[in-house]
Amino acid sequence: MNVIAVVAFDRIHPFHLSVPCLVFGEEQPSAELPPCEVRVCTPGATPIITTAGFTVSTGHGLDEVAGASMVIVPSWPDPELPAPPEIIDAVRTAHQGGARVVGLCLGAFVVADTGLLADRPAATHWKWADVFARRFPDVRLDRESLYVDDGDIVTSAGTTAAIDTCLHLLRRQHGAELANRVARRLVTPPHREGGQAQFIEHPLPATGSRHPLAGTLRWAIEHLAEDLTVDRLATHAAMSRRTFTRHFRATVGTGVSTWVATQRIVMAQRLLETGDHTIERIADQCGFGSAVTMREQFARTLGTTPSAYRKTFRWPPHAADNRRGGVDLNRG
C-alpha cells in the first residue's frame, strides 16, 4: 500500500487540507500499480478544528506518518509560530525512513523547523518570504518560483501553487496521463513548471475607496496600451511627482515602472490563456510596444516565450495543443 500522510492540526484552512486529498486521494493510478491511500494524521489522532469552524475527525495519528512514502504538510496557521516537537519529530522520522517530504505554502515553515532544509533551496508564499528568510537564514529561499523540487524535499508558494505542486508530484510518480485526468477533474491547467515566477499582485484599493491612488491605479490598468510614465500618472492623481512616487510605493510596495511592467505581463497572460489573438496584437494591447519587447519581458520574468506560455496554459486547451508527449489530454 502506497501511503501518503497529510499532517493536519487545529486552525488548518479547509482548502489547504483538501488539495492533497483531491489530487492524490480519488484517482487510483492503475491496476498494475499498488493502490494509494491518503491518511490525514493529527496529533494524538484527535479531531481538529478548521478555520471555518467545523471539526475534522480522521482516526489517524502522527505515529502513522513514519510509514508513509510521502508526507505532506499542507499549510501552517502562523509563520511566526514554530511547529511543535511532535510534528517535527514525525516529519523528520518519516524522512529518515525514506519518505519524500512536501511543504505546501506555509507548510514550508514546518519543514524548515525540522532542519531538513538547511543549505537547501525552498519556496514559500511571497507574503511571508521575509519572515521565512529571517527565521531560517540557512535555507536558500527562492522567492520567485511556484515550487521547488529538490528530490526528497519539495516546497511550494501560495495556495494555487500547492495544486501545481501536487499535480507535478502525481505526474512524477504515475505519469502525465493520470495527472492530466486529475487536472481536468479539478478544472485547472494540467502543468505549470515550478520555475514559473509567482506573480505578486498587490490588491488595489477598493472601488469607491477614498485612497488617493484608487482611481489612478484602476485607470492605469485600463490604459496599459498607452505610455504610462510617472509624470502622466502623477498628473492623473493630481499630485506632484515626488508626492505621487511616495504614495505609490507605500501603496503597492514597488516602483511605478516595475508595477506597470507586472500589470502588462498579467494582462498578456490572461489574453494568451483565453484568446486567439496574435502575439503582435497582444503586445500592442498590453503596451509592450512590440512583440520583441514582449518576448524579452516574458523571458526575463517567466523564463519562457509567449507562444510556449500559450501552448501550456491556454484554457480550455485547443485540439492542436492536446497532445503533449504522446498523451491525449482529452482522454479520461
Automatic annotation (TrEMBL):
<protein>
    <submittedName>
        <fullName>Helix-turn-helix domain-containing protein</fullName>
    </submittedName>
</protein>
<keyword id="KW-0805">Transcription regulation</keyword>
<dbReference type="InterPro" id="IPR009057">
    <property type="entry name" value="Homeodomain-like_sf"/>
</dbReference>
<dbReference type="InterPro" id="IPR029062">
    <property type="entry name" value="Class_I_gatase-like"/>
</dbReference>
<dbReference type="GO" id="GO:0043565">
    <property type="term" value="F:sequence-specific DNA binding"/>
</dbReference>
<dbReference type="InterPro" id="IPR018060">
    <property type="entry name" value="HTH_AraC"/>
</dbReference>
<feature type="domain" description="HTH araC/xylS-type">
    <location>
        <begin position="214"/>
        <end position="312"/>
    </location>
</feature>
<dbReference type="GO" id="GO:0003700">
    <property type="term" value="F:DNA-binding transcription factor activity"/>
</dbReference>
<dbReference type="Pfam" id="PF12833">
    <property type="entry name" value="HTH_18"/>
</dbReference>
<dbReference type="InterPro" id="IPR002818">
    <property type="entry name" value="DJ-1/PfpI"/>
</dbReference>
<dbReference type="InterPro" id="IPR052158">
    <property type="entry name" value="INH-QAR"/>
</dbReference>
<keyword id="KW-0804">Transcription</keyword>
<dbReference type="Pfam" id="PF01965">
    <property type="entry name" value="DJ-1_PfpI"/>
</dbReference>
